[in-house]
Amino acid sequence: MVEKIKIIFLGDIVGKSGRKAVKMLLPELNKKYKSDFIIANGENAAGGYGLTEKIAEELFSYGVDVITSGNHIWKREFYPYLQKTERVIRPANYGPGAPGKGWTIYTKNNIKIGIINLEGRIFMRPLENPFLVGKSLAEELKKETPFIIVDFHAEATSEKIGLGYFLDGLVSAVIGTHTHVQTSDARILANGTGYITDVGMCGALESVIGMKVDQALEMYISMVPRKLEVEKSGKLKLEGVFLELNSKGKAEVIESFRLISS
Ligand SMILES: [Fe+2]
Ligand SMILES: [Fe+2]
Q1: Can you give the residue range of the structural domain that contains 145?
Q2: What number of other Cβ atoms are within 10 A of residue 144's Cβ?
Q3: How many CA atoms lie within 13 A of 221 on its CB side?
Q4: Relative to the alpha carbon of 180, which ligand is closest?
Q5: Into how many domains does the chain fold?
Q6: What CATH code is carried by the domain that includes residue 172?
Q7: Which residues are the active-site residues?
Q8: pLDDT of the chain along its 262 residues, tens only?
Q9: How far does residue 178's CA lie from ligand 1's centre (Å)?
């Protein structure tokens, strides 16, 4: 039995800048943390919207073990890969027939880790109930491993905190993604679940959640919707959390980090 495991979880990787941030800054971070597993949210890794097979493989080559996602994963060209891979998951609370899987059990160095992806419903689409879907999946995966990480991809802070309390003691950590803005509330809940409302993002520092500032402002002022492009210049940031779990799967450490390139 393993004594403890160490995990790095990276927030939404946004486009080329996000991938560059992972390539440049992750090795330095991992020198400090020496993690056993690296999980990253990759829903915006391809041009700011979705993922491709090539980009998933690129992230694996930087040391990412499993990629979680969210509302931006639904690109038709990606479905065949999503169907066959065990290393990229999408939120579990979509309906029957949705491509891919909402959870995975990943084995590395004889250690099994369970990862569940859920999407919120407040200010988002009306999916299946993430609380109920998450609980029943966690109970299933618990039969296989005590180490279970939940990526809750959601907009409302209240819904995220609610899920943290709801799954406290059942899973090792509830990690929020989707807003791309890191919150300063990383802590261990009463029954041993590590929690943060949002881990933040990996990508351009001077941007509107990864996208070009001038384009976002044009959209906000004119109120006309437009497709935003990823900001590709300037400094980069790498945000996420580091977790240490004991042999029972309880969190003993949760620490948020933000690295900025020089
Ligand atoms: Fe995102
Ligand atoms: Fe999202």
Answers
A1: 4-260
A2: 13
A3: 6
A4: 1
A5: 1
A6: 3.60.21.10
A7: 72
A8: 788 999 999 999 999 999 999 999 999 999 999 999 999 999 999 999 999 999 999 999 999 999 999 999 999 999 999 999 999 999 999 999 999 999 999 999 999 999 999 999 999 999 999 999 999 999 999 999 999 999 999 999 999 999 999 999 999 999 999 999 999 999 999 999 999 999 999 999 999 999 999 999 999 999 999 999 999 999 999 999 999 999 999 999 999 999 999 9
A9: 4
